[in-house]
Amino acid sequence: MTLAEITRRPVDSSLVIWWLGQSGFAIRYRGDCALIDPYLSDSLTTKYAGTEKPHVRMHPRVIAPEDLARVPVTMVLSTHHHTDHLDPETIGPIVSTLREEGRTVPVVAPETWRALAAERAGVDAASIVGMDEGTTIQIGAFEIVAVAAAHEAVEYDARGRRKCLGYIIRSSVATVFHSGDTIFYDGLAARLRPYAVDVALLPINGKVGNMAGVEAARVAHAAGAKIVVPCHYDMFEFNTADPASEFVPECERLGQRYKVLALGEALTWP
């Protein structure tokens, strides 16, 4: 299955998750489609060209932001402020193109980054749906619950709001957990267990504030996730990982079900 099938997939009882690259995913259920942390530009490659840490892309993007206007996008979620999770050259064109089509799409982000999210999306700050740990919202067929993420550590702003989040995304057919950028921290699996996670989307790059493959396998197993999908690799040469080196062996040792997706490939649940 390819990403292009988002536009022609019939409305049925299946939930479909496409990997967009890095930590970006599109989740479609019935008539709703949630985009999470989409990064579909070369903004970071341009920004860091000629520096000590060039962001050299490993693969072409799977789709242009403007082309997502053909997709029934009903929300865009960002887990935190870093550009590969809140990209103005991705979110801005998506929102503006959909606006031209007569559709207003809510942008969901941590409350602490409301103003930044509005600036990057090109919308008024009042229209941003702000989240903090424990906040629950309902948009279309999806219920969204915010969970703390530890991007190096669980960080707070001056008002005590979490700077980085993960999201529980619940529908009538499945519960998906997208961790955002996070290391393993005490209590993460315990936070997830009550939600009976079906699909866990976890980073495996093992650097820049993210867990490695072994940890991702263990978190998924401890949380009781039915299947785990690795992400946050194969985007930039300086910050990647091979799922076969740690993640897959540890999943198999634990008896944890997993699925390694190719870029643009989908997982259908059930």
Properties at a glance:
Metallo-beta-lactamase, Chain A, alpha/beta, six-stranded mixed sheet, 270 residues, seven-stranded mixed sheet, globular
Count of extended strands: 13
CATH class: Alpha Beta
Note the total helix count. Answer: 6
Label the structural class: alpha/beta
- Radius of gyration (CA) equals 17 Å
Question: What is the helix/strand order?
Answer: EEEHEHEHEEEEEHEHEHE
Record the strand order, biggest sheet.
6-5-4-3-2-1-13
Residue windows where pLDDT falls under 50 for at least 5 positions: none
Percentage of β-strand residues = 15-25%
Largest sheet: 7 strands, mixed
Tell me what the CATH architecture is. Answer: 4-Layer Sandwich
Explain this structure to me?
The chain is α/β, with parallel strands linked by helices and 270 residues long. The protein has a single domain, classed as Metallo-beta-lactamase, Chain A (4-Layer Sandwich), CATH 3.60.15. Helices cover 19% and strands 24% of the residues. Strands 6-5-4-3-2-1-13 form a seven-stranded mixed sheet, with helices on one face. Strand 7 (136-139) and strand 8 form a beta hairpin. Helix 5 (213-223) runs parallel beside helix 6 (247-254). The two termini are 15 Å apart. 47% of the residues are buried. The model has no long low-confidence stretch (mean pLDDT 92).
Write the layout of secondary structure elements.
Elements: E1 15-21, E2 24-29, E3 32-36, H1 43-47, E4 73-77, H2 88-100, E5 107-110, H3 114-121, E6 129-131, E7 136-139, E8 142-148, E9 165-170, E10 175-178, H4 188-192, E11 199-203, H5 213-223, E12 227-231, H6 247-254, E13 266-269
Parallel strand pairs: 3-4, 4-5, 5-6, 10-11, 11-12
Antiparallel strand pairs: 1-2, 1-13, 2-3, 7-8, 8-9, 9-10
